[in-house]
């Protein structure tokens, strides 16, 4: 399932594909050397936007849900990657405690948990799902659409360790992005591995920090393959001290929008791109596609109506928005059956293990697709990974395309690794 | 593509499948702990025989050819495993020198080389194929059936390093089993990784040593899952100082055949198995299904006719047979479209990355299938690995079956690791 591409009009990304394929051994070695020095996040998903003239990550999720949206065929790759990850962290591990989000009435999310449980079970771990939801006071079996069930257990916190009743795991895997803060039960667990680390949660994480790291990564990578880093990187700016309700910080926002749009306009001119530049204004700490608006002109952020201000001021779990990222928007040229789509790549440890297209039939190419009404089309395995063909005409070969997606997504993965090192509260700064 | 199984008649292996599935986390942890202490061979393939009442490896190949027989869908798993392997050995590597067998007119074998080249290319290495064939004196392009070509280069040996012209690799990967001895060009390479190590070649390797290691491995594993080790292990014996031409060693052979058949008979009686016991007499150092005969009675090895003696006395590349293994034969119950078949499992590093059925329409269930006329049916990816279903009725679910194959094959892989440690000439013995 390869989305329709208007090949003739979209030279640069096709050239990029060619260049990336030709440089495959050098690229893989480059990643290998990066991972010698830096630990990859335990898992991640990366949203990409393909504008035809550029291909770049726009969001990196370190607590990826949606594993159920990947095709069954990706499972062995995920299992193999999970084996590699576990072996490095806690090879003697018998047990893994999975801590999910609270929304246990969302069957899609429950399916995601079931899929993660299955991956780690097959990788050789006994998996229990322990929830921070205080409404769950005893083991509760919830039904999945396919007829299976999933057991949610209340957490049991000891003095130094966390588990569930009669279950003392080596590793605690968070599938909860800590948007509403770090629960007390997760603090001070020095005897167990907590993955991803607590500072990867949205309590402390900031998108602008991630994309600052990404700037560094992509600069070096672009040099390796000989392209303008902008091809792979959206411009961005940051505004702090925002209060949408109180109309506080509007000037900063308008200036930032203006600055980013100006830089984009210059690049569009340089490359002869006839698109209308826009930016995405997003909560700097937030996810689920909430707190996002698309802006084509600085004036638009000056007189926001109440509805928009309400929308922008609060993200997941009532967390208030104080910082925003103003990120260059990339109009998507990818289509599945006429609907606009964008690729999402899933990784475990350092490995690409699958992905899907996020498709939204009611959105335009310059809109946020991560919104109600979206659906997911798995990147089919045979198309996705199979065999890259260096000689295929650019833009005509699925595996080649997906290899390129995987490379760009892994650049964001390297950036996340840098970011987590830089923001680690336990790293002493000189 | 799951071969037909007469389920009702073949209880024990179905029970085994069930038991292995239930113990999956414990089994994977068991392997993880093994690999903490022991390095897996770089790659391997294992021939299995499924008798319905037992499932066991009968041959472990440390220089596997036939990678071209695996389905395209397995490629990503092999690439991922190759990445993991390379990273451990020589993460900074740019180049890999692949040293093949000499039979460069065998297009199947050339396709195998092309597939291996592709795997390591995608894993991030520049691969050159350098041959020990002295007939190749300059870079020679050979045509593959699919229209691609493969470049064979003469080796260039420096004082301390081996490469090809203008190519100085970090790692040398042997796909040549050294049946005709270790070429001088491979001796004394202390600066480069030579994989598998030279003592894994048939110059020094012995099947009986392998199966002695396997005895140890399987004893512990059988205890873990609570089965009779015999379920997973063929009896065997060894005879040295054999000379088939001179009729030397026939008594030892007859005695050994008698002993093994006696032990098998006892087991058959214990389990109520109504099969006629037989043994495979094989060259203790040899491959390609050469130098193998099936024997149902000790008297058969006493008066071998000239043809059989000729057949048994020489294996690949004219290597003379001096040692033989007398191995319990396992009648195969597996069929593909009426033809007898046996599974062959491929591994890279510690990972199962694919496999196929070796099928021979003209052979019986108690015959050697590795002989002219055989063909290969890849284990289809979606069936092979996809999703194991612990609740599926034993014998009805492809992925469950293939998971079991993979577990038994990995037991042989662990045994090979022990074997290589024990036979390492550079290990000091106390």
Automatic annotation (TrEMBL), chains A, B:
Q: Which UniProt keywords apply?
A: Ligase
One Pfam entry name: GshA
Key word Ligase present in the record?
Answer: yes
Q: Does the keyword Ligase apply?
A: yes
Protein origin, superkingdom = Bacteria
InterPro entries linked to this entry: GshA, GshA_N
Gene3D superfamilies, from UniProt?
Answer: Glutamate-cysteine ligase, N-terminal domain
Which GO molecular function, any one, fits this protein according to its record? ligase activity
The name of this protein is Glutamate--cysteine ligase GshA
**Taxonomic lineage of this organism?**
Bacteria, Pseudomonadati, Pseudomonadota, Betaproteobacteria, Burkholderiales
Query: What's the encoding gene here?
Result: gshA
């Amino acid at each position: 399932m390869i989305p329709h591409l208007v090949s003739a009009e979209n030279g640069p990304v096709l050239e990029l594909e060619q260049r990336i394929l030709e440089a495959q051994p050098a690229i893989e070695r480059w990643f290998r050397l990066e991972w010698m020095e830096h630990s990859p996040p335990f898992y991640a998903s990366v949203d990409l936007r393909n504008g035809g003239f550029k291909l770049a990550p726009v969001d990196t999720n370190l607590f990826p849900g949606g594993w159920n949206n990947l095709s069954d065929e990706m499972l062995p790759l995920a299992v193999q990657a999970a084996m590699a990850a576990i072996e490095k962290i806690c090879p003697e591990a018998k047990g893994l405690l999975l801590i999910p989000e609270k929304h246990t009435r969302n069957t899609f999310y429950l399916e995601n948990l079931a899929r993660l449980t299955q991956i780690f079970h097959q990788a050789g771990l006994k998996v229990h799902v322990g929830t921070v939801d205080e409404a769950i006071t005893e083991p509760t079996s919830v039904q999945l659409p396919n007829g299976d069930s999933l057991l949610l257990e209340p957490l049991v916190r000891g003095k130094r360790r966390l588990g569930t009743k009669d279950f003392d795991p080596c590793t605690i895997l968070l599938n909860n992005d800590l948007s509403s803060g770090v629960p007390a039960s997760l603090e001070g667990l020095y005897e167990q591995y907590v993955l991803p680390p607590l500072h990867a949660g949205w309590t402390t994480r900031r998108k602008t920090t991630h994309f600052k790291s990404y700037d560094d990564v992509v600069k070096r990578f672009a040099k390796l393959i000989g392209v303008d880093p902008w091809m792979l990187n959206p411009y961005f700016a940051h505004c702090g001290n925002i209060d949408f309700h109180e109309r506080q910080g509007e000037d900063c926002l308008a200036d930032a929008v203006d600055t980013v749009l100006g830089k984009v306009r210059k690049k569009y001119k340089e490359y002869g791109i006839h698109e209308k530049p826009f930016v995405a204004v997003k909560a700097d700490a937030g996810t689920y596609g909430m707190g996002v608006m698309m802006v084509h002109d600085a004036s638009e952020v000056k007189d926001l109506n109440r509805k928009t201000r309400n929308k922008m001021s609060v993200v997941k779990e009532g967390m208030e928005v104080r910082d925003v990222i103003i990120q260059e928007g990339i109009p998507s040229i990818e289509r599945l059956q006429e609907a606009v789509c964008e690729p999402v790549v899933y990784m475990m440890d350092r490995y690409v293990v699958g992905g899907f297209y996020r498709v939204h039939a009611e959105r335009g190419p310059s809109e946020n697709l991560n919104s109600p009404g979206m659906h997911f089309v798995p990147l089919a395995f045979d198309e996705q990974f199979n065999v890259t063909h260096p000689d295929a005409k650019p833009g005509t070969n699925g595996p080649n395309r997906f290899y390129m997606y995987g490379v760009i997504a892994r650049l964001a993965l390297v950036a996340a690794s840098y970011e987590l090192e830089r923001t680690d509260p336990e790293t002493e700064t000189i």
